Amino acid sequence: MARAAKMYGVSFTVKVRRLFSSKGFVRGSLAVFTFFLLWQIGSMGLLPFMHAIPTPIEVVKVFWEFLHLTKYWQSWGNSFLRVAYGFVAAQILGIPLGLGMGWNRNFKDLTYPLFELLRPIPPLAWVPVSILFWPTNETSIAFITFIGAFFTIVLNVLGGVSSIPRELTNAAVSFGASPKQIFWRIVLPATIPSIATGMMVGIGITWNVVIAAEMIAGNTGLGRMTWEAYLASHTAGIIVGMISIGVAGYVSSMAVKAISEWLMPWKKIF
Amino acid sequence: MKNGSGKNNEENVLRKGELEIQNVEKTFRIPGCAPCVALKDCSLTVERGKLTVLVGPSGCGKSTLANIIAGYDTPGSGKVLLDGKEIKGSSSDCIMIFQETALWPWMTILKNVTFGPSLLGGSKKQQAVSKAMSLLETVGLEEFADKYPAQLSGGMQRRAEVCRALVMEPKVLILDEPFRGLDVMTRALMQEYLLKLYQQTGLTMFFITSEIDEALFLADRVLVMTQLPGTIKTVVEVDLPRPREFHVTTSEQYRLIKSQVMESLYEEGAKIFTHLQGIGGNVPDTCQSTDAP
Q1: Is the CB of residue A216 less than 8 Å away from at least one CB of chain B?
Q2: The dihedral of CA A21, A23, A28, A31: what is its sign?
Q3: Nearest-neighbour CA in chain A from B147: distance (Å)
Q4: d(CA B101, CA A196)
Q5: Is the pTM value of this prediction over 0.80?
Q6: Which of A202, A232, B105, B151 pairs with A226 at a CA distance of 20 to 30 A?
Q7: Could you read off the pLDDT of B201-247 as tens digits, one per residue?
Q8: Which residues of A are less than 8 Å from B152 in CB distance?
Q9: How buried is residue A178: exposed, middle or buried, by Cβ count under 10 Å (0-12/13-18/19+)?
Q10: In A, which residues are within 8 Å of B72 by CB distance?
Q11: Contact present, B207 and B53 (Cβ < 8 Å)
Q12: Cis peptide before A56, with omega less than 30 degrees from 0?
């Protein structure tokens, strides 16, 4: 225990120094450097098929310009909002549904077949019907995003509830817990790791889906921005869009990770 | 615990239960498979304030019996009586310590131990904390009260689980191979812990194991179970002196009792061999040679 405390006690600067001097870090940096080097060489016309790609230096320049545009930041805001709506709605509806299916046999018998019938339909296949059904473009994109995360979270929660070791619930029964107490104090916390997994996978899918949906049906957002750059043959803009989407996905994943760690203090101990 | 056993002796006597299992039968029916008779005509008594050990080959229905006593499963026929009253469903009268640790990983050790009393709410909750702390102290875990189970070693987890059971003041403590998966040293230490605890509380304990040495070291009585369908084959009284420590295992008396139990167990073990080989009544050499102590 004392050892663990010591490991956590090290200061930030020491941690950074250790990181930079580690073999893994050196190897990783080498790969990243080589990637950019090859990119630069390739886009200078020295490698086949790559003459149309802007050089990294050009991309950085364009990126800098984009950072000063309000439209760029609006695209961020729009995409983030859509992801947030879809993702949060999927959690609010999906977690209780998964818990209900896992907890109550009758409820599962009732809902599972329909769920399994709709699940194989890819989120993007919902685009046309969702444009027809929802009043605004905004709601239809948020809906498609919701579909992306919904099925994953339900499946994860359902799996989580069904795989709770019997001893954990049995022990609570022995101590006189009522079904209600077992649900809230045993089943729900025991499912949190599965909820967290569902959220992590879900946020990734949500970003995938929102970008595609924006390209097809949107007129704002990072996906649309990238698509418009393509239509304008503005290749550096395309790359900037791609990088922005990557960063956005990463930031969202980190946020979800922080939330799940906060939900599970008992997992954070090592 | 230390002063508890002396002070409230009468109360303790009341709390100790006596289990009687009468002609219990249990058959598992899985669609598409032949029905599996796990227990048949199984009768035994777990005497008040005694440490009774059930020993038998693996897969002979020991855990099925434990689950029935704990109320997690119902017998097909027959009865389980606690102090003359039939057990229906599980209650805090018979608490089971499981094969794998069943501590709730998201609760600290103290929260785990006080879970049962916390369901009652109110003043019981406050009492429970101090009671839990003194129980944890007796097993040397008072410093770990605020840790999560994953931060404890296997042996510590088992001790915490015993505390969680004892705080409910059960009439019978069922231990279903509780030390399985622990290394040899820890296991030996845990056995001594359990004996100390038994000495202090005088609780009725029903201990299930597949290891003869563990059975003999702990038990007042050893019940040997047969192969499937499980039933009690032999009852061996273990009148080794208490308090026991590991020296007892080298005594002549111990060896005599052990050979008695082993003979009985190997007969059951041999049944599997002959069953598998399709030869009638031939005990393999390996069994006979290890038979002699």
Answers
A1: no
A2: positive
A3: 9
A4: 24
A5: no
A6: A202
A7: 888 888 988 888 888 888 888 888 877 777 777 777 778 777 777 77
A8: none
A9: exposed
A10: 166, 170, 173
A11: yes
A12: no
Question: Quick check: is B136 in a domain?
Answer: no
Token pair 């040495």: residue: B213
Q: CB of A170 within 8 Å of any CB in chain B?
A: yes
| Integer Cα distance of B160 and A23 in angstroms | 42
Backbone angles phi, psi at B77, to 5 degrees: -150, 175
Share of chain B residues as helix, strand and coil, in percent rounded to the nearest 5: 45, 20, 35
A71-128 pLDDT tens trace: 999 999 999 999 999 999 999 999 999 999 999 899 999 999 999 999 999 999 999 9
CB contact under 8 A, B94 and A192: no
| Closest in B72, B147, B164 to A170, CB measured | B72
Report the topology of domain A56-267.
MetI-like fold (1.10.3720)
Tell me, yes or no, whether B73 lies in a domain: yes
Which strands, in side-by-side order, build the sheet including B232-237? Answer: B94-97, B172-176, B204-209, B51-55, B221-225, B232-237
CATH at residue B244: 3.40.50.300
Q: CA B20, B166, A171, B119 torsion: positive or negative?
A: positive
Which of B106, B111, B124, B144 to mutate against chain A (most A CBs within 10 Å)? B106
Cis peptide bond N-terminal to B243, omega within 30: yes
| Confidence band for A155, pLDDT divided at 50, 70 and 90 | very high
Domain that holds residue B37: 7-93+170-284
Nearest to B13 by CA among B282, B203, B259, B196: B203
